[in-house]
Amino acid sequence: MPHALSWKGALQGQIAPEMDEEIHIYETQITLRQQGKIDERVFAESRLRRGVYGQRYDNGQRHDGVSVQQLPYPSGALTKGPQTMWDAPGMQRIKIPFGGLNAVQMETLADLAEEYSDAICHITTRQDFQLHFIHIEDTPDLMRRLAAVGITTLEACGNVVRNVTGCPRAGVCRDEGFDITPYAHALTYFLLGHKDTQDFGRKFKPAFSGCAQDACGLVNMHDLGLIASTRVEHGEIQRGFEFYVGGGLGTVPHQAQLLDAFVSEAELLPLAQAVCRVFARLGEKRNRARARLKFLIAKLGIDEFRRLVQEERAILPEDPRWTVYLSDLHGTDDQPTRPAGVLGTGPHPAGFASWHASNVYAQRQTGYAVVTLCLPIGDLTSQQMRTLAAIARRYNGGRARTTVAQNIVLRWISQADLPALYTELVAAGLGQDGAGTLADITTCPGTDTCKLGISSSRGLTAELRQRILAQNGSLDAAVRPLNVKVSGCFNSCGQHHIADIGFYGVSRKVGNHAVPHFQVVLGGQSTDNAGAYGLSTVAIPSKRIPDAMARLTDLYAKERQDGDTFQTFIKRIGKARLRALLDDLTRVPSYAEDRSYYADWGNPREYSLGDMGIGECAGEVVSMTQFGLAASERQVFEAQLFLENGESAKAAQTAYAAMLQAAKALIQVQFIDVKEDFEYLVAEFRQRFYDTQLFYDPFAGPTFALYLFHAHDEGLEGLSLEAVRRRIEEARLFIEAAYACYNRLNPQPALP
Q: Measuring CA to CA, which residue among 108, 147, 137, 126 is closest to residue 17?
């Protein structure tokens, strides 16, 4: 993996050199994997780190009724049984730091979804985009087109730092301490590809919030959570952050813990780096179920973890990138492009009043508003995305942000323009009201495409939303603002733990048949940055979940007391009463009585778990040394290509670089802070592996190590064609010996 990428990026239409090199490396790895020259486990983690997943095809039909056979990939590509990225399309995740998009990027996403996918742009709960039904052979071209508009897929998945999320109202919010956007931007590109973030046992998720009380950032459920804070020093207002660590949902949710009540803006990046280094060094590597930061902190205790981070921070070598971004804190600001105005008295278009009540937020800047586009199940079509880009250009200069609730917001909309904007959104099918209400349900992909999906989260969400909207505004006023979140399994990708009412997919066996169910989770809290986690109450057949939802909301409407939130109401009512309320819904009729229970929402086929696969959310743990050795193999392969093309000087240089890369990879087994200087690398390798005889091959003795020293001493000038050929072969042997050395130093555990 590369060192940290430039955080400024390239001009529009150009690919930043670092991004271009990254994509070239990935393309070469695809070729090598097709030739069987890279281990599948290493390649899988490598593609995952670029956001390329396998996906599931078991249903034959999506939640919206579209047959998968109608989608744009060759007939016969879908087969029952094990799938690989080579015989069936997969999914591409695309990182959108803090959710920020411009019109050109929206148009590019629309084009890619139409050309390579099913013409659907899906927004995730981490402000990313996902395109499904993507062929792996197309992913390098797709990545280049994204890179040309300043978007990367690097580290969109894998055991690395994931997308840095942030409040979509940052900079315009009435409650924020200050605009967190430039800080989220700086952290994104400082940690992207950083050497200290390549050796984690699992993923690492950061988030920023401008305030403590709202739900825009969800800081408390993140590995690294940062809340804007200020204090007065020497009569001046100083910016900083409440610095939280160790939050996470998953199967066992943990609330983040306060590491430091105030971290100055200048200390933000170095302290984050120190946290990453401690996690990389001490975090679990073998047992993936306990490899998140939250488990390390639970094991050590927050006081000991704090001590280790402070100790690590004290020994970090100075890095100018820690503070360079502070000289331009306005580089990510959105600016209004139309004059501020006042909303006229009307008449307004039909439906405008209810839309305005739920989807419009008055900015702190007088005369401007934030408009939320409520996207059912987080989807919009390619055509809708193009139309949105054009609308945004007209009303705010072409800017938008995605949200963790799977919606899109347009900021800096003149209040006077709201009726006209609403009319255009309605015409594009993007004018639904109800943002932030009971109908605005968050959901993961579930059994539509996820290999771990147990029940159809998207199918259930579509059904719940349809029933809520059918009530035509008759919902009780107290029920309307409740939030609902649905996950297809217990991993909480749909964030069911922090919902007022959450559901996650499980399965039950009735007779000889499997029946899709959902566990009902009550009493979570998304406000206060995910302030509390709910608890499971009872598992109910999927087909009775809408009834369970109706009973819960009706009970709350009828029996709540003044001042009751849903959380306090649930505590007051108690689990026994709630269980009794829902108990009869748990009964499943026999297969002969009612077969509808034995099929999931949106899927006429009989329900089965037989098509579940191995999840790829984080991949397997692959060490920095394994990645380094794989990179050296790629380089020696490229040396061969240079030689075939008559570029012998490049071939010799690349073969030598391959040996240096393999030596560096081994050095990192013992010492992570390796310098890039080739004199240093050769000296360190000699001291640590040659002089100690750790590198000696059982068959060749010290010979293979001498290949590196000989290449170093001989240099690159005046080599004959035959000498270059030998250099390449020697590099290959050196790399094989490096693999053997690593295996001796890190024996695989015996199988049980």
A: 147
CA–CA separation, 19 and 150 (whole Å): 9
Residue 692 located in a structural domain: yes
Give tens-digit pLDDT for 101-113: 999 999 999 999 9
Neighbours of 266 (CB within 10 A): 14
Which H or E element spans position 129? strand 129-134
Q: Is residue 467 part of a domain?
A: yes
DSSP 8-state class, residue 749: P
- Give the position of tokens 């490229």: 638
d(CA 697, CA 739): 10
Tokens of 100: 């920020």
In a shared domain, residues 23 and 136? yes
Distance CA 747, CA 687 (A): 23
Q: How would you classify residue 36: left for phi > 0, otherwise alpha for psi between -120 and 50, otherwise beta?
A: left
302 and 207 part of one domain: yes
In a shared domain, residues 581 and 447 = yes
Write the pLDDT tens digit of every residue in 144-161.
999 999 999 999 999 999
Residue 118 to residues 58, 70, 228, 741, Cα–Cα distance (Å): 17, 9, 39, 46
Pairing of the two strands 165-166 and 206-209: parallel
pLDDT score of 293 more than 90: yes
Specify the CATH number for the domain of residue 672: 1.20.120.330
Between 621 and 502, the more confident residue is 502
Tokens of residue 707, six digits? 């290949």
Alpha helices by DSSP H, listed for 608-647, are 624-644
Number of domains in the chain: 4
Query: What amino acid is encoded at 379 in this protein?
Result: D
**First vs last C-alpha separation in the chain:** 33
Distance between CA 557 and CA 479 in Å, rounded?
Answer: 6
State the Cα–Cα distance between residues 224 and 204, nearest whole angstrom. Answer: 8
Compute φ and ψ for 454, nearest 5 degrees: -105, -45
Q: Kindly report the backbone phi and psi dihedral angles of residue 634, in degrees, each rounded to the nearest multiple of 5, phi listed first.
A: -60, -40
Write out the two tokens for 155.
């580290």
Among residues 598, 614, 641, which one ends one of the domains? 598
Q: Which among 374, 413, 409 is positioned nearest to 394, based on CA atoms?
A: 413
Stated pTM of the model: 0.85
The H-assigned helical ranges of 35-173 are 40-48, 103-116, 139-147
Question: For 695, which DSSP code?
Answer: T
- The residue from 583, 598, 613 where one domain ends is 598
Domain range spanning residue 185? 173-328
d(CA 156, CA 95) in angstroms, rounded, equals 6
Specify the 3-state DSSP secondary structure of 204: strand
Task: Assess if residue 394 is contained within a domain.
Answer: no
Task: Provide the 8-state DSSP code for 689.
Answer: I
Q: Which structure tokens are listed for 428?
A: 């594009």
More confident residue, 60 or 535: 535
List the CATH number of the domain containing 257.
Answer: 3.30.413.10
Tell me the pLDDT tens digit for each residue of 175-203. 999 999 999 999 999 999 999 999 899 99
Query: CA–CA distance from 237 to each of 186, 242, 287, 404 (Å)?
Result: 21, 15, 45, 30
* Rounded CA separation 638/634 (Å): 6
Which of 525, 450, 498 is closest to 248 using CA atoms?
Answer: 498
Contacts 24+ apart (CB under 8 A), 569-572: 570/522, 570/523, 571/523
Which one-letter amino acid corresponds to residue 733?
L
In eight-state DSSP terms, residue 4 is: P
Integer Cα distance of 540 and 616 in angstroms: 28
Q: Say yes or no: 190 and 75 in one domain.
A: no
Closest CA to 165 of 122, 105, 223: 223
When pLDDT is averaged across residues 630-639 and rounded to a whole number, the result is: 86
Before 347, cis peptide (omega within 30)?
Answer: yes
Q: Rg for the chain (alpha carbons), in Å? A: 27
